[in-house]
Amino acid sequence: MSDLYARHRAVLPEWLALYYQDPLEITHGEGRHVWDADGRRYLDFFGGILTTMTAHALPEVTKAISEQAGRVLHTSTLYLNRPMIELAERIAQLSEIPDARVFFTTSGTEANDTALLLATTHRRSNQILAMRNSYHGRSFSAVGITGNRSWSPTSLSPLQTLYVHGGVRTRGPFAHLGDADFIAACVEDLEDLLGHTRLPAALIAEPVQGVGGFTAPPDGLYAAFRDVLRERGILWISDEVQTGWGRTGDHFWGWQAHGRSGPPDILTFAKGIGNGMSIGGVVARAEIMNCLDANSISTFGGTQVTMAAGLANLTYLLEHDLQGNARRVGGLLIERLRAAAARTPAVREVRGRGLMIGVELVRPGTDEADPAAAAAVLEAARADGLLIGKGGAHDTSVLRIAPPLTLTADEAEEGAAILARALASVH
C-alpha cells in the first residue's frame, strides 16, 4: 500500500470508492492523455467521469481561467456578473426551451435538486416519476429518486417516487419486443401507473442512463411519454448531466432523440461544460423558474472563474464541431469494439452513440453479470496504458467508455486495440 493510499484510508470515508487494486494518482494531463505519479502516460477514455469534455489542459480554457483569476475569482450572485449572464444567454438559446431562464449550481446533483424543487413547487405535488436503473446524484433528494440500488443508501426521502419502465432496452419485461411495441408497452405501463396515483409533479429521466451502464430506450420513447404527461400537466425534466453538449454525436442534447413533442420543461446540466471546473445548472421556462416565493441565491454557482471556463469551453466545442467529431470518431470506436466483442464470449452487448459507449460483460454462456470480469478488464486496460470506467445496475456489469470529445481517429484505434486485448485476457 502506498503512503498516499494509507493516508486516504485514514482520513476519508470507507465508501469513497477508488479504482484499481493499486489506486492511481494522476498528476497532470494534456489532450486525451494523463500521467501518474510514477511518470507513466495513459490514454484517458473516461475523462474524470465524463467531465473533461474537450481536452486536458485545453489552452483556451486554462487561459480564460488564469485571466479571470487575475481580476476577480468570486463575488456571489448578489452582484451583476457578466460572465454568468453571457454563459446563461448562450445556454438558454442552445436549450431550445422557450422563454428560458438559467440558474447555475456547482454540480449535477445540485442542479437536479433545484429541478425537483422547481417542479414540486410549481405543481404543488411531492410525487416524482423516475426511471428504473436511473442515477441523479448523491444529495438526500437525488438519492431518493435514484432507481439504482447500488447508489441509493437510504429509502428515506422528502419525495414519493414512482418508477417507470423504459430506460433499459435489452433487459426487463419488454426487452423481447420490437422498438415500436417496446415504446407502446412502456406508454401503456405509464398510463396504468398514473391511473392509480395522484398526479405527480414531474418525470425526471436521463436520455442515456450514465451510472446505470449507458443504457437507453428506443428513440422517441420520451416524446411518447411527453404526450401522456402534457395531457395531465405533468412536467418533463431531462437530466443532461452526462448526455449534454454533443457527446452522443447525433444530437447536442440527449432529449433531441425524443424531440417530436418538443423540448423538456426543465433541463439540467453539469460535468462537461466546465471541462473540469465545477459547473452545474438548470434551464426552465420562466413561469417554472420564477415560481419560488422565497429568497434564494447561489454562493458558488455562477462564480466568475467557472463561468469564464464554461464560456471558453463552450466556444471551443462549437467552433471545432466536437459534436460532429463525437459522431464520426465515436462511430469508428463502436465499430472496432463490436468487432472485438464478436470474438469475446464475455461481452453481451456493445451499445451507445457518439463518445458514450457501454460494453456489458456476462459470464460466458449465460445472461448473468460478471463484476469480477469488469474489474479485471479495468486492471488489464490500465496495465496496457488505457483508463476506462465501469457501472451498471439491476445485476449488470458494464465498462463505460467516454473520452474527451477531441479524440482522434488514431487514438480511437489505439484505445480499441488495448480494450480488445484486455477483453481477450479475461477469459
Structure description:
The protein is 37% helix and 17% strand. The protein has 427 residues and is α/β, with parallel strands linked by helices. The chain has a 7-stranded mixed β-sheet, sandwiched between helices. Helix 8 links the parallel strand 7 and strand 8 (235-239). The two termini are 28 Å apart.
Distance between the termini: 28 Å
Low-confidence stretches: none
Q: Compute the gyration radius: what is it?
A: 21 Å
Strand order of the largest sheet: 4-10-9-8-7-5-6
Derived structural class: alpha/beta
Strand content: 15-25%
The count of DSSP E runs of length 2 or more, i.e. the number of strands, is: 15
Write the layout of secondary structure elements.
Layout: H1 3-11, E1 26-30, E2 33-36, E3 41-44, H2 47-50, H3 59-69, H4 82-95, E4 100-105, H5 108-123, E5 127-131, H6 140-145, E6 160-164, H7 179-194, E7 202-205, H8 221-231, E8 235-239, E9 266-269, E10 280-285, H9 286-289, H10 304-319, H11 322-341, E11 347-353, E12 356-361, H12 371-383, E13 386-387, E14 389-391, E15 397-401, H13 409-426
Helix pairs in contact: 3-10, 4-10, 7-8, 11-13, 12-13
